[in-house]
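Progress report, Aim 2. The chain analyzed during this reporting quarter is listed below.
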Amino acid sequence: MPAHRLNAAFTALLAAALFGATTPLAKTLLGSLSPYLVAGLFYLGSGAGLAAVMLVRRLTARGAEARRQASRFPLAELPWLAGAIAAGGVAGPALLMLGLTTTPAATGSLLLNLEGVFTALIAWIVFRENVDGQIFVGMIAIVAGGVLLSWQPGAAGLPAGALLVAAACACWAVDNNLTRKISTHDAVAIACVKGLTAGTVNLLIAWRLGAAPPGAAQTAAAMLTGFAGYGVSLVLFVVALRNLGTARTGAYFSIAPLCGVGLSLILWPAWPSPLFWAAAASMAFGVWLHLRERHEHAHTHSSLEHHHRHRHDEHHQHDHDFDWDGQEPHAHPHRHTPITHTHAHFPDIHHRHSH
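Predicted structure tokens for the chain:
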């Protein structure tokens, strides 16, 4: 597999690993805080940390004018961002917390695997993202691994709250697909806005429900955990959306529970159960199927104008209307002229064509 294709898959897997590590780290660092308070601190830490990254980046950047142009967010695309924040940062966590109040933890963990399924279904059915048999089987294998990982023998029936958990997964699936629509823009800025907004909303909910304020140490630990597990992870997730498409990124991200369980076994040493090894094998098989994908055919690129970090490859042959210092990759608004060619590709930002 070419290096750039492998890097795209690694980006999604790293995002999953960071997110999956959040749960066991939260258990060791936070103790018993209000669920809304924990979610709020995680998201707020994510947004605040990424805001600091943006500030440092701006202060130390060269070619400041080009970067200022690249950071502008088109007004026409604000509805996509607002929808993603409302679905994934506000509705999703609220529905999850309400559902978990009456749903056993084992059942809740099992239902959370629906996010990957819903994400892929929306991408394939609503947004017409390309899928072939190999990718479909890989997705099934990864989701099956998640089911095995969270399966608890003897847990019977689905409580009423299970529908709320499933609805939360649907909200995050909508969030993932809407975020893909704006993934050409600065991933750090997108994740920062989502984190600050979701953090503020969840903290307000916690305050209205009478949550006791955490101590300084708990607050710092929660925000640092949120910065890595929610902030950096979300930045990588947005970059993966840009390079892989929604369904494939969602499939890779579905290994997050496996990463969380793996870290838990390191923090609290114990011999993994047979279900863990079965889940790991199923997920590994699914990832392998995705990694060996080769989708190639003659296709035409329509005229397109956007901005993102890029190199001057076969898709990026353009002049610059600013003083360019020759550095690559770089970011600025640029226009693609129509071109027809054949090469292996993912349904990334340059290959969202019909078949």
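Strands lie at 296-301, 304-310, 330-336, 339-344. The first helix runs from residue 3 to 29. These observations will guide the mutagenesis work planned for the next reporting period.
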